[in-house]
Amino acid sequence: MRPSAVRLLNILVPIKRAVDYAVKIRVNPEQTGIDLNVKHSMNPFDEIAVEEAVRIRERLKDAVKSIKVVTIGPPKSAETLRTALAMGADSAVHVEIPESAPSPEPLGVAKTLKALIERQKEGVDVVILGKQAIDDDAGQTGQMLAGLMGWSQATFASKVEVNPEQKVANITREIDGGLEELRCKLPVIITTDLRQVQLLNEPRYASLPNIMKAKKKPVEKLTAAELGVDITPRLETIKVTEPPKRVGGGKVANVDELLAKLKEAGITGKRA
Amino acid sequence: MASKVTRLRALALYKELHRLGRDYEPSYDFHGKLRRLFEKNRNLTDDEEIEKALRFGEYIKNETLALYSLRKYRHLKRMYPSNSTSDT
After folding, report:
1. Whether B87 contacts B43, CB under 8 Å
2. Distance CA A259, CA A99 (A)
3. For the whole model, what pTM was predicted?
4. How close is the nearest chain B Cα to the Cα of A194, in Å?
5. What is the pLDDT of residues A154-183, one digit of tens each?
6. Which of A19, A51, A196, A211 best probes binding to B when mutated, by most B CB atoms within 10 angstroms?
7. Quick check: A172 and A156 in contact, CB under 8 A?
8. Which residues in A lie closer than 8 A to residue B88 (C-beta atoms)?
9. How far off is chain A from B85, nearest CA to CA, in Å?
């Protein structure tokens, strides 16, 4: 049972090492997925999440006890954790999966995060993660985690204000047609969005000195088995293909030609 | 180099710029230009000139960072365009 006295906040930021945003995605020759032999970097939405966590601490100062980042991925994901630590996180957890293992599915990720949260002796008050990964665009992990934990959730957040005394978070969400303001009781799951007009925040650059300092920050290594979670995929991908090539449009020289082409297409402008 | 301190600063700046240059358009030869510009100034002794050169290096670093963030912003905006039915 959590004591009702004002407690310091513990923030958890799950991040993903995803295909880099600038890479041209190609389907692999077997048509089972995309070519993964390309540059990877931290999912941009997760960068925004890390930045938001660091900014929350900058605003609330001592009210934030710790910012922990976690990733589920192959050994190379350790670099992504290092970048997050360089941006301001205090410690990291690397749930390592073998290099050859398939990428975990959102449900597997959510279950792993749940097991990790329950393992945290000091509890977790805020989980901030990207709304989706740019390589699979699933957009499910945050919501699934909220469901599994029974916690409040605010997805597609474009503005976050945490109030530790009242144990609530006021969050503005991007929805179709505008913005929605929510007040969520802690603990809360927040997924970060790219605001249409501007980013929720501009993630800071991880400078070389900070990267070196980050090497000293603790990184706990775990496996899914140690957490008691089975992350074998439940979905079978049957086929992956590229979208059909765009057929070029044609240019017309004048209005008469335009009318002729429209007529050809069966558009006469006369009532049927 | 005039002093140990400025030497360390120059080295740190070089390392940082070198790391940044990895993501630059390869045909621009960022690393080549970086090295040449630093070598051109290797024998500076006047404190003010050294300071000016270091400041210029910082300026280039910030410009490059700005370019990268703009590039990323543009990419992401194109990948996730605003919903055509919304007002934003």
Report:
1. no
2. 59
3. 0.85
4. 8
5. 999 988 999 999 999 999 988 888 889 999
6. A196
7. no
8. 178, 196-197
9. 7
Q: At what angle do helices B4-21 and B30-40 cross, to 10 degrees?
A: 160
Chain B residues with CB-CB distance to A209 below 8 A: 12
Quote the CA–CA distance of A133 and A46 in Å, as a whole number: 8
Q: What is the pLDDT of residues A80-133, one digit of tens each?
A: 999 999 999 999 999 999 988 888 999 999 999 999 999 999 999 999 999 999
